[in-house]
Amino acid sequence: MGGWIDSLVAALQFLTRLPVPSAAGGASERAFRRSVVLFPAAGLAIGLLTAAFGALLRWGLPSWPAAVLLTAVWIGLSGALHLDGLMDTADGLLSHRSRERMLEIMKDSRVGAMGVMAGSLSVLMRAALLASLLQDGRTAWALCALALIPVWSRAFLPAAITGWPYARAEGSGLGGLFRGVGARHAVAAFAVATALSAAVLAALVLLAKDSAGLPLGWAQAAIAWSIAAAFTYVAGSLTASAIARKLGGLTGDVYGAINELLELGLLLIMVAVLYHF
Length: 277
Prior knowledge:
By secondary structure, the protein is mainly alpha-helical. It has one domain. It contains twelve helices and no strands. α4 (about 65-75) crosses α7 (about 115-135), α5 (about 80-95) runs antiparallel to α6 (about 100-105) and α5 crosses α12 (about 250-275). Joins adenosylcobinamide-GDP and alpha-ribazole to generate adenosylcobalamin (Ado-cobalamin). Also synthesizes adenosylcobalamin 5'-phosphate from adenosylcobinamide-GDP and alpha-ribazole 5'-phosphate. Pathway: Cofactor biosynthesis; adenosylcobalamin biosynthesis; adenosylcobalamin from cob(II)yrinate a,c-diamide: step 7/7.
């Protein structure tokens, strides 16, 4: 049990900016490698805090000011880790240079025009989708989405690490940190995401009282889980494959970019469902 606690601490420290105390001597290599299984748990921590802030902001402010502040909270909880990855990836891929040159551009800490454009569009889209979600009358579904979207986006990351090679030949950076992560870790992360989703959706069905819009029942909860899981792994795989064809594999920045795009995609689906039903 102690080893898994160390792995959870490692996942929270890596993926969030929450003040989690470190174990003496830091996480072991084994604990850090196993932390990928608990990436969805770190996502749930971000999601629950985002949902709590969303409920508070929705109560106190109109939808757009609340959405802008909630966007800042959501991005800030991860220290803009994934947004930074999206901007670096956009700078590299959209430069249309050779593979080697794209990897060099992505490694540069400076942000170029394409990165600024991608980051700006991502923030604007997130704020717009959150505004739509917050002004919708079905509060329970909106808060459930905010809690679970970060779970599923991070559940795919072990699959990305396992399913595609690391693009940098030297194996430095994240390629070295996650050496040894295999299919069993990706499957376990999916199982953790499913278990966490089941707990949150069960709470939604049993506790939430929503008089308007989509009914709250077990069938709807199962459909919501199916949509989230299917979109995450299909869209994530297509995105990872497309990028790997250009770079010869994936990098730490690409993992962050995929997470960012999956969050936006899942948020877009939720807004579309609530808009039409």
